[in-house]
Amino acid sequence: MHIEVTGLNKHYGDFHAVRDISFGIAKGRLIGLLGPSGGGKTSILRMLAGLETPSSGEIVFHGRKVVGLPPQERGIGFVFQNYALFKHMTVYDNIAFGLKVMKQSKALIRERVLSLVALTGLAGFEHRYPHQLSGGQRQRVAFARALAPEPQLLLLDEPFAAIDAKIRQELRSWLKETIARLGITSIFVTHDQDEAIEVADEIMIINKGRLEQKGTPWDIYKHPQTPFVASFVGESTIVEQVARLKGFESADARIGTRALIRPEYIEIGKPGEFRLASATEPAVVKQLHFRGSAWMVEAQVGELTLITYRSLEKETLHPGEEVRVLVHRAYLFNEGESWIMENGLKEDPMPVHI
Amino acid sequence: MRRLWIGLTYAVFGLLIVIPLARIAVGAWAEGWGGLSAAILRPHALHALGMTGLIVLIVTVLNTLFGVMLAIYLARASWLGDRLRRLVNSLVDLPFAVSPVIGGLMIVLLLGPQSVLGAFFGSLGIEIVYALPAMVLATLFITFPLMVREVLPVLQELGTQQEEAASTLGAYSWYTFWQVTWPSIRWGVIYGVVLTVARSMGEFGAVLIVSGNIMNKTQTATTLVYQDVENFNLLAANAVALVLAAVSIALLLLMEWAKTRRGH
Ligand SMILES: Nc1ncnc2c1ncn2[C@@H]1O[C@H](COP(=O)(O)OP(=O)(O)O)[C@@H](O)[C@H]1O
Ligand SMILES: [Mg+2]
């Protein structure tokens, strides 16, 4: 189902929770709503579902205006954050609920429920009650229950939040595959950027009730359009006086400019490891942290502390050691604008404006 | 120290409940089975017990319906507005705070033959005060908080998510109530019913005022006990009281059972 939202607002009393949000979603896409807690993600999802009435704005599903339609008539499936399973019903009856409401025949219900049970890997658990299931199993029951009436749009509110890290990983890829296989338009909410990047075709970053940016994970990572997006997605260090870094002297041209530098923008190594020694800067290794697949290095450059990673394959550094760093690029921003600047000594003398 | 407290608890329990109960049983048995059955089988005693039974039945049905409905409105109807709901919520407790006698008096003042409403119904040939309707009203007033206070917390704890889930699955409110909400509040309602039955069976003050305690007409079991005591007919008083006590004990056991099931 194609979805078009324009000028969506939600007030709770005096509190403006969702601010003038507009977006469109093509049929069959899997969208991640990403942002910090309290940003308004759940409110947006609930308005799409009809569980909350927008203060203003338009929601159109497949050409049909749905504001004012109750949830029963929107053809959606909703997976609640804590699943909201019917606790006095078995797994079978939970999944069958939506089909019974539609007054389908017993045989048809049975067939559909059993196929969903198989799809969600719950075979053998049909007669259990929700309290007899693990978190991951409950999540899958909620998913199967929402899918049973064949909704046109699936909405999931932090579907993995209550699940152990290990199983979460499995469930994520399972969910992504299953949704792709069914081809159903889906929106899921998360405050975990890894989850959004891994699962979603497209991400919408929501902060303080506003839509900061919408795009593919790669787009958002590569071309953040606001400082918030840049700092929220990926790791980063904020540098106040970026002009002190070699190759970024011209960054001072506009007042109030600050820089956001990601670990992967920085290369660190012994003096001999660099081809372009002129662009590098002397630094001292402040601290080393082992991060499983790499060393995280805190390097002191003048008064600045930069954070970067160093491959385990390369020669290990030591605290106090004198090294060189090369800052490839920085994400610069001031009050009104943001742009990416490449290291001027490296190659291109002109900064890239976006 | 702990022993002392436990002993004291039992002593108070015995003093307040067991000894009076035993006294009633002994008193009712003073002339053996014959005296007991004769006292209960007096025509006006049977009428009084029947009256009590009828009031209990009507009040329990009405209180269950309206109590559950009001609890649902208080817990779910956000369109009512917070302030109105808070106001109604505190009004529900009014009967707990007001003496039953005063409750009865209010009914007499509002609906008695001298009042505007009472005169209006009187002209239609409907008796309210000193008749069954006022007795039902008075008992309803006394028992009203019981059902709401049992069901409202259960509904609040249950939350709205299961009901919202049902709505996204296409179910409308009536279906959702019976399939989703009712199974969760069922034991709370049953507990409320038991409390209502017990309380309405035992109500005395409010009923005495609005009924006028007319033998064979508006006399109930409790007001009959009162009249028998006034007439120094202690055997009869004990006999009727024993019947009430027996039903109460049965209810108490039922209540215990309902309480253990309520958690499920
Ligand atoms: N029913 C409500 N009444 C009042 N405030 C609410 C209500 N629901 C959400 N809010 C507020 O709106 C903001 C956004 O909430 P929510 O949509 O749940 O954000 P998120 O899902 O991104 O954490 C929060 O500050 C929250 O306190
Ligand atoms: Mg939320």
TrEMBL record, chain A:
Subunit structure, interactors included: The complex is composed of two ATP-binding proteins (OpuCA), two transmembrane proteins (OpuCB and OpuCD) and a solute-binding protein (OpuCC).
Gene Ontology CC annotations of this record: ATP-binding cassette (ABC) transporter complex
Keywords: ATP-binding, Nucleotide-binding, Transport
PANTHER family in alphabetical order: SPERMIDINE/PUTRESCINE IMPORT ATP-BINDING PROTEIN POTA, SPERMIDINE_PUTRESCINE IMPORT ATP-BINDING PROTEIN POTA
EC number: 7.6.2.9
Protein name in the entry: Carnitine transport ATP-binding protein OpuCA
SMART domains (alphabetical): AAA
Reaction equation(s) it catalyzes: a quaternary ammonium(out) + ATP + H2O = a quaternary ammonium(in) + ADP + phosphate + H(+)
Every ABC transporter domain range: 3-233
GO molecular function: ABC-type quaternary ammonium compound transporting activity; ATP binding; ATP hydrolysis activity
Pfam families on file: ABC_tran, TOBE_2
TrEMBL record, chain B:
Domain ABC transmembrane type-1 span(s) in chain numbering: 49-255
Subcellular location: Membrane
Spans traversing the lipid bilayer: 54-75, 87-111, 117-142, 189-214, 234-254
SUPFAM superfamilies per UniProt: MetI-like
GO molecular function, one term: ABC-type sulfate transporter activity
Assembly information from the UniProt record: The complex is composed of two ATP-binding proteins (CysA), two transmembrane proteins (CysT and CysW) and a solute-binding protein (CysP).
Full protein name: Sulfate ABC transporter permease subunit
Protein's organism: Paenibacillus sabuli
Keyword Membrane attached: yes
Keywords tagged on the record: Membrane, Sulfate transport, Transmembrane, Transmembrane helix, Transport
Example of a GO cellular component annotation carried by this entry: plasma membrane
Pfam families for this protein: BPD_transp_1
Coiled coil: none
Protein topology in the membrane: Multi-pass membrane protein
Lineage, opening ranks: Bacteria, Bacillati, Bacillota, Bacilli, Bacillales
Function: Part of the ABC transporter complex CysAWTP (TC 3.A.1.6.1) involved in sulfate/thiosulfate import. Probably responsible for the translocation of the substrate across the membrane.
